[in-house]
Design goal:
Layout (H helix, E strand, L loop, with lengths): L11 E9 L3 H9 L12 H4 L25 E3 L5 E8 L3 E5 L7 E9 L5 E9 L5 H29 L7 H27 L3 H20 L4 H21 L4 H8 L1
Antiparallel strand pairs: 1-6, 2-3, 3-4, 4-5, 5-6
Helix pairs in contact: 1-3, 4-5, 4-6, 5-6
Length: 256
């Protein structure tokens, strides 16, 4: 892809894509206006646009004033981080680069036509983490969240280009809550393994929690069911803990 050579040996290298029922010319205006304080990122607005001067919700229309960035212009990524624009090829490719010289990271967005009515939007991130506590912390955070965040951004671009109404902030909040609760379920299940004397059951509960997290992350189940399942599983673990209250873990769990 364009600018791959900018980071020849990246620590983090991820390529993701989505098929959109639209031409590159229809998708490009949505793509080029993205950015913190600009049109947003069309993903998890409650997290990605927090503190943005343009508001918490990503743009639902094309903004003419944001259609003509130039190479070298700053691109805010968050309240605390900035990138800059690299090469821009209208209706084909736009690149975001780190501010370092030479750049140690690139975000590449490329539009590849499939046929007259479909386009493949490809996202590639190639990055080397800073060798500082904050840089390493950011790297670890990226490793665990990028596959969720970028997928949501790609879906946000797709929905706008195809004319679908953007997801409401309330629906986003439910999805974020279900993700966090599914992670909490897995952590609680690991405590069962650590403290419960019934190891067979403990491992089975942990396996179920892991599968639930997988389902919430990648499943195509309706949002309402996705929001309820983690609560039901947590309730089930609490019932199991109370029922077998003689174990060391259950005593700690009930006391807590």
């Amino acid at each position: 892809m364009p600018e791959d050579e900018t980071v020849a040996d990246p620590v983090f290298d991820a390529t993701r894509a989505i098929t959109i029922r639209a031409t590159p010319q229809l998708i490009w205006p949505w793509l080029v206006q993205m950015g913190f304080g600009r049109a947003g990122f069309y993903g998890y607005d409650l997290i990605e646009n927090l503190g943005s001067a343009s508001g918490i919700q990503s743009a639902q229309t094309i903004v003419p004033a944001l259609q003509h960035p130039q190479i070298g212009d700053l691109l805010p990524l968050s309240v605390a981080a900035n990138l800059k624009y690299g090469p821009i090829q209208p209706d084909r490719c736009i690149v975001w680069k780190s501010l370092d010289v030479p750049s140690d990271g690139v975000f590449i967005w490329e539009l590849v036509p499939i046929d007259a009515n479909h386009t493949r939007l490809i996202s590639r991130i190639r990055w080397n983490y800073e060798h500082s506590p904050s840089g390493l912390a950011l790297g670890i955070f990226t490793e665990f969240t990028d596959h969720v965040a970028v997928r949501k951004i790609l879906e946000g671009v797709r929905d706008r280009a195809e004319g679908r109404p953007p997801e409401s902030l309330f629906a986003q909040a439910l999805e974020i809550a279900s993700l966090l609760l599914a992670v909490l379920n897995l952590l609680v299940a690991l405590l069962f393994i650590a403290f419960w004397q019934r190891w067979g059951w403990a491992w089975l509960i942990a396996l179920g929690a892991g599968l639930l997290l997988e389902l919430v992350l990648y499943g195509t189940i309706p949002p309402a069911i996705r929001a309820v399942l983690p609560w039901l599983y947590l309730l089930g673990m609490a019932v199991v803990g109370v029922k077998f209250g003689r174990s060391r873990f259950s005593r700690h769990f009930i006391r807590w």
